[in-house]
């Protein structure tokens, strides 16, 4: 474990060094007052603000995380379920999928006001916003996974005359698992965007923290919010990775994850 | 010809098969029968229709004409081994072998015990929890063989199952198949393009050329099969005969892609 950690650190060391250089230059540029600190606060200043405002930032982060978890969770459940329906009934797929794709192209920022009208200010709108943006990648990936079952394995199963249910649960869903997980990972990033955008409009969480800080010209606080939301996205991807590893217990699926 | 007391286990009459997109018949007016307890080797260069014939026997393809009769007692007990092991990658060795039982709803205690027994006979008892990617090619093929036998198959159809294995493993697998044949009273139809393998494993050999008909069709009488047999004059004489037939077929250029058959 320690050896693996060390190997990882060694592997990523150029990135760490680059980060350190960027932060040092940034710090120096602000310290020399080449850039006004009310436009670009120094890294240490951002850190200081974050620590000072921690209770407030922490509460906002928790609220955003909660909305993301809701939105992404529902996307995962309904995305997989919808994909199964589309897969099982081709007529439904051909009727509905084009509109899903069209819906996907509508920018979330343009729907968000509508969501406020429907769900009111606060968390329900934020959750809906995170849900809407994160649904499609899971749906599309799951559908691809179900459709791309290895024809050789399908032929093997056919030897034993399986029922449609057996085919779905023993062959097609396991084949789709790597695709589903990839879809959830793509959607995780989108869910963060959806939640922050929702919060800009409906209030609450890091979104309104950033928005409020902007109106008060607190650029350092804006940066804190930005750092926290990307930390949230990273943490989310890490949790998904960990959960999928635990769930699959080292089972080798068709595609490398 | 050995006289068989009971009805033939497989009977093929005037069978033909052409694929829609190809005017040429892959199998054309082919007739033969396999007596009970006999194993058959389908020999021929690549592209001559051996695999198609095997798939027709299994019902994976529908004939364009003619008929295939499988003895009614055996028809429900047929299984198929593909050219590659074709194991389900997310299932362990044991789970792969149990798959046919799960799909046919026979996953009871007795069948499971039978599966474990089979895996033991095939020398896989240490590998039950391994995934296919953790097994060697020979082991994967043994798992595929166990999977084909776990449904208590009486006739096993094998499509060049050992072609991709190294020579020593291939010899071991051939002997294993012969041992299983006598132990489980199996019958098999074995597709190969190796002349020695066909002569070694088949009670009968059906030589297919590119025309879709059987070129040669004979009984092979070696009561004792062991690797020593391959050094005996009669074995070599038969291999010689088939080699000549193969040579003629290739000279007549009926087959465009029949490589890798000469020894």
How would you describe the overall organization of this protein?
- The complex is a heterodimer of chains A (257) and B (263).
- Chain A has 257 residues and is mainly α.
- Chain A is 84% helix and 0% strand.
- Chain A contains 10 helices and no strands.
- Chain A is globular.
- The two termini of chain A are 21 Å apart.
- Chain B folds into 2 domains: 176 residues, P-loop containing nucleotide triphosphate hydrolases (Rossmann fold, 3-Layer(aba) Sandwich); 68 residues, no CATH class.
- Chain B contains 8 helices and 9 strands.
- In chain B, a hairpin with a 5-residue loop joins strand 8 and strand 9.
- Chain B is globular and about 50 Å long.
- Chain B starts with 9 loop residues before the first strand and ends in a 12-residue tail after the last helix.
- At the A-B interface, helix 7 and helix 8 of A face helix 3 of B.
Going across the biggest sheet of chain B, name each strand in turn. Answer: 5-6-7-3-8-9
Largest sheet of chain A: none
Strand content of chain A: under 5%
Spans of at least 5 consecutive residues with low confidence of chain B: 253-263
Q: What CATH architecture of the largest domain in chain B would you give?
A: 3-Layer(aba) Sandwich
Q: How far do the termini of chain B sit from each other?
A: 28 Å
CATH topology of the largest domain in chain B: Rossmann fold
> Shape of chain A, please?
globular
- The name of the CATH superfamily of the largest domain in chain B reads P-loop containing nucleotide triphosphate hydrolases
Distance between the termini of chain A: 21 Å
Output the CATH homologous superfamily of the largest domain in chain A. MetI-like
CATH class of the largest domain in chain A: Mainly Alpha
- Extended strand count of chain B: 9
Report the average pLDDT across residues of chain B. Answer: 84
Query: Helical region count of chain B?
Result: 8
- In helices, the fraction of residues of chain B equals 25-40%
